[in-house]
C-alpha cells in the first residue's frame, strides 16, 4: 500500500484563523476557527478547527505527514524591522506595541506551533513547511482550479513583503513572475479608504464595495475625487503596479491607516465617524476608490495575460473578494475563463499552504478534473445530524416538525417564502470562506420590495444600504442577468437584464431614498446601479438548495431567492444547530429549517432575557 500524504494546513495569528486537511491532494475538510469559538475573525491558533478537520477525515495526529503554516514569520519580521528603520523616528509607539509579541512568540513560530499542538495532546515530530504568504494564496487559487495551466493573480494587503504577485501555474509547479512589495499595496489602499469612510479595516471592505454604487458616476465631485486619488495618493503604472505616496499613509509604522489631517485637507471633508450618517460625499468617494481599484486590478490582469500567455486566470487574496472588480476583468475579455478561490482571504491560506507543501515541497503530481474545481462547492465544514438536532430541541425546548418527504418540505417552505416569510436554511456541511452558499443561509423572496430593508434592520441588524445576493438556478441565470461566466461562489457581479428594469426617478438624492426605490421586478436583489452579486446554483453541486429554488420557481415562476449569510451583525456564520437556533430566536425570522426539521417562530417559547444580547458593531 502506497504511503499516504496527509497534510494539515494552518492560517493563524493575524485574523480569520483556519485549518484544512489534504490527503493525497484531495481536500478533506476546512473550517475557520471563528465558527467554533463564536469570535468573529478569531486570530488565535485554530485548535477547534484542527480538531474538526482531523475528526472529519478520521485521522489522528500521529498519522499526519506534515504541517504547513501559511506564511514565513521570519521574513515578515524582517519586513517589520526594515520598515521601522526606514521610517525612524516615526512608528515608535507601533514598534513598542509589536515587538514584545514578536520577540516572545512569533519569531519562534516552530516552537510556538509545537507548544500549541502539545496543548492538544499531540507531539509533532514531522516536517513543518512555511510557504510564503502569497505562494499560499497562489496555491489556493491554482491547485483546486479546473485548469492544467493558468495565470495566477494574488492581491491583498501584505504578506511578508509581497502585496501583489503574478505567477504561472502548470501541473504541479508554480513560478512567481512579478511581485509588488510593501508598502505599495492595492489592498492597503482600499483598506485606507475603508478606514477613512468609517468602516472597520479587514471586515468593512465589503461595506465600502456595497456603498460605491450609490455614488454618482457623472458627478463632478466623483471625477475630482478620482483625479485627486490618482494625482496625490497613488501612481498607477501601465502594468498595474502602483506607488503610494507614503506621506498620506500611516499603516507602515503607525496605529492607524491614514494621515487623517492630510486626507481631510485633500478631499475637503472630515473622516466619517463609525455609525454616523452617510452623505453624498461619502458615496462619491467610495465610488472613486472602487473605480481606481478596478483600474489597478484590470491592468494587473492584462499584465498577467501578457507575460504568461494563458487563456485561464485564477485569483486569490482579499482583493479577489471584490466581485465588482472581478467582473470588470471578465467583461474586458482578457481571459477565456476565470476561477477565484471562494476562501480568497487569509483563511484560504490554510488550504494553499497544505497544497504548496504537497505539490511543491513533496513534489507530488496534481490530479485535475476537467471542467470541475476541487473545492466541492466550498462545503468543507462540519455537518450535524438528527441526534444533534434533537439535542438542541431538548436543550431549548424547541418545537419543530420533522418532514419525512424533503420534496414536500421544499414545497411548504417555498409557499411561506412566497408569502413574504423569512427563512433560516441550514443543511449538511458548512461552507468554507466568507460566503453562505445555501447551507447556512437566510432566504427570502426577491420580488418583495421591502425585503432588503426588513432583513438588514430586523434580522441582520446591520446597515440598511447593504445589498443582498440572488441565488439563481444556473440554467435560468441568463433569464435574469447579463452574466458571462458561472458564479457558484458568489464572486461575480452582473447587471440585471434591461427587460426586468423599471424606470428610475430623478428626484431621489439621499442614500435611503435611492435604496428604497423599486428598480426592477426583483427589487430586493437589484442594487442602485442595477447590478447584483450573483450565485448560480448548480443541481449537481448543490442538490438540496437547487430543489428548494426549483420548487419556488414552480410555485411563483421566479427562479431565484435572496441568499444572505445565516448570522447577525458582529457574529460569525452559524455552525451548530444550537448556533442556528439562537440566531433564529434573537431575530424576527419566521421559519427555521435544519435538515428535515421545520420550526415556526410564533410557536416557540421566548428566550430568557439573559440569552438575548446587544449585537456588536462590526
Major β-sheet profile: 9 strands, mixed
Average per-residue pLDDT, rounded, comes to 93
Distance between the amino and carboxyl termini: 51 Å
| Radius of gyration using CA atoms only | 24 Å
Helix content: 25-40%
Total beta strands? 21
| Percentage of β-strand residues | 15-25%
Number of continuous helical runs: 19
Spans of 5+ residues with little confidence (pLDDT < 50)? Answer: none
Class based on secondary structure composition and strand pairing? alpha/beta
Shape: globular
- Widest sheet: strand ordering: 13-21-20-14-15-19-16-18-17
Can you tell me about this structure?
This protein has 618 residues and is α/β, with parallel strands linked by helices. The protein is 35% helix and 17% strand. It is built from 19 helices and 21 strands. It has helices spanning 34-37, 47-57, 73-87, 92-104, 109-119, 133-142, 186-196, 205-211, 220-233, 260-267, 280-308, 323-332, 349-361, 386-396, 406-418, 451-459, 511-515, 543-556, 577-585, and strands at 6-11, 18-23, 26-32, 66-69, 128-129, 149-155, 162-170, 173-181, 234-236, 242-244, 312-316, 337-340, 400-402, 423-426, 440-444, 469-473, 492-495, 531-537, 560-565, 591-594, 597-600. The strands form 4 sheets. A 9-stranded mixed beta sheet has the order 13-21-20-14-15-19-16-18-17, with helices on both faces. A 5-stranded mixed beta sheet has the order 3-2-1-4-5. A 5-stranded mixed beta sheet has the order 8-7-6-11-12. It is globular and about 65 Å long.
